[in-house]
Specification:
Layout (H helix, E strand, L loop, with lengths): L17 H6 L4 H13 L1 H8 L13 E4 L6 E4 L4 E2 L1 H5 L4 H4 L3 E6 L6 E5 H18 L6 E5 L4 H13 L2 E4 L6 H10 L4 E5 L2 E3 L2 E3 L1 H8 L8 E5 L13 E3 H5 L11 E2 L3 E7 L7 E6 L1 H14 L7 E4 L6 H13 L3 E5 L10 H9 L3 E4 L1 H9 L3 H4 L8 E5 L5 H11 L6 E4 L33 E4 L5 E2 L3 E7 L9 E2 L3 H8 L7 E9 L5 E6 L3 E4 L2 E4 H9 L4 E11 L3 E10 L7 H14 L8 E4 L13 H8 L16 H8 L5
Parallel strand pairs: 4-17, 6-7, 6-8, 7-14, 8-11, 11-12, 16-17, 16-18, 18-19, 19-20, 30-31
Antiparallel strand pairs: 1-2, 3-13, 4-5, 9-10, 14-15, 15-24, 21-22, 21-23, 23-25, 25-26, 27-28, 29-30
Helix pairs in contact: 2-3, 6-7, 8-9, 11-12, 14-16
This protein binds adenosine-5'-monophosphate-propyl ester (PRX).
The site of adenosine-5'-monophosphate-propyl ester has 22 residues, from helix 12, strand 20, strand 25 and strand 26.
Length: about 650
Amino acid sequence: MADGSGTQNEQAVFPVPSSIAEHAHVDNERYLEMYKASIADPEAFWGEAGKRLDWSKPYTKVKDVSFDQSDLHIRWYEDGELNVSYNCIDRHLETRGEQAAIIWEGDDPNQSKTVTYHQLHEHVCRFANVLKKLGVKKGDRVTIYMPMIIEASYAMLACARIGAVHSIVFGGFSPEALAGRVNDCDSEYIITADEGVRGGKNVPLKKNVDEALKHAFGVKKVLVVENTGTQVAMKGGRDVWWHEAAAGVDEFCDPEPMNAEDPLFILYTSGSTGKPKGVLHTSGGYLVWASMTHEYVFDYKDGEVYWCTADVGWVTGHSYIVYGPLANGATTLMFEGVPSYPDASRFWQVVDKHNVNIFYTAPTAIRALMREGEAPVKKTSRKSLRVLGSVGEPINPEAWLWYYNVVGEGRCPIVDTWWQTETGGIMITPLPGATDLKPGSASKPFFGINPILVDADGKELEGAVDGNLCITDSWPGQMRTVFGDHERFFQTYFSTYPGRYFTGDGARRDEDGYFWITGRVDDVINVSGHRMGTAEVESALVAHDSVSEAAVVGYPHDIKGQGIYAYVTLISGVEPSDEIKKELINWVRSEIGPIASPDLLQFAPGLPKTRSGKIMRRILRKIAENDYGSLGDTSTLAEPEVVDELIENRQNR
Ligand code: PRX
């Protein structure tokens, strides 16, 4: 057993608590049995697993997949028909109509509400009828740019009900970022709110939409939910108040039968190159994956209250606030606020207020709360908690131990869940009743997942080793394409190691077969669990008139996991100053959003380049990490002296 100190952490093993093991869905023996079966015969395993959903037309085919360039396709349950909203709502009405489906907790601690499955049905049907009234049809893309109000979940489920494809853009993104995403998927409809509220501050969502629509010309209708009641401009013929449109619409709306492979949603995510990609997920396989992982990974039991603190603007909110839990008839908590408002006790007060049994958050939140000490935690009870979860980035053993010992009082297993927007749901994770825990390790693959580690040439590595993480075969929740760019789908995920899905992550496997995710091996930075492409931040910087060149890298950051470090070369005639630094940081905020703001910005008269003009990022990363003693060979640089200048003026000391 661990004592929580220093270097022993990585060796520490926390056995499954017997209180959990006794009642868990699966113990280790059962996990191994099911895992073996899922790998040996995926058709049989997923054929059976698909029955957890209600199909209006049952499938007869289970899996049809090729990762080859000439014929790249991924299909699951391809002749089946179902409706996702029916599966998340209607099928529960008979048995749990009066049970809480969603508990909504406001940013203001005095505001919360509970919506039963019956009420959810009515709200979603109305919302769906409003969308129909606006002209939304099956297959249309609907952009959702909303705060964490309960209507965001109605909007998602209403789209699913009528077969429209939602594309949620996180409310923290700028008008420019919103416009880019609206245009990329030719979205003619936007759903938004007058304003959002987070941490006591108002976010001008409708105003941002108006700004975005100066660069997005295809939008026909903007549906606006009244939230704070602030005055906003409404453009005649285009902008529609939700409450006005909803007056008099029917409270029933038949769910549209959808093919299993009809799109459910698009979600934009950053990669190492180019614009954000529209990750496309479809209906049947995605919902099987979201619901099955939700049940097993969190060991969800009927009647429990489950809380995932993510925002619906990220994939975690899609799969583990809305689709997974509701497909399972769970009670899911949706939180509008932030962990630090009104104070650092908020999470635990919400846990006590609603008797939360399962709590799922990100390491960055844990690290931020850890800094505030134990007192804000200890003044709450947290007795209802049974299982804790972590997602989004590697959790350092120190934060893990604090989460385990202080928050969970040593009684709650932590499931450190590794997955991606692209994977639709959790891929590598402990199971509460089955897996002995090692702080910092995402541990073992979920059913059907065969993770392998390969070297730079694609050779599969055996035993305890470090390598690039690939998945050998498809799983039902896998993304199906990059919206509008199938070739990019191939190039991004299947071209590096032919025949395999390449995750972009590095990982280590230990002697016990546990996986330890070491982080991205491409030019993606993980800031507070959110993915940011360095290329995106660079192109925002060079779009500024004073910038001639920019290079962006990540560096270790105590709270965010990784921070953004920007090297900027100004055009001749513009002198470095604190004012221009501030201006550039604000510029990036307004071009992309606050999550993309550089934490450190260094003016660089020149960037280290090879003679062929390629920026040597390895060197820039080392300097940003304040590890300039081991730069390696710099003799191939066109101008080796620029490195000395960069070291001299480094910002991270
Ligand atoms: O690098 C991995 C990291 O987050 C990336 C996926 O980011 P995104 O698509 O935004 O999805 C985040 C929520 C699923 C991965 O490539 N990551 C995610 N979870 C973990 C993680 N790294 C280590 N441990 C995790 N549990």
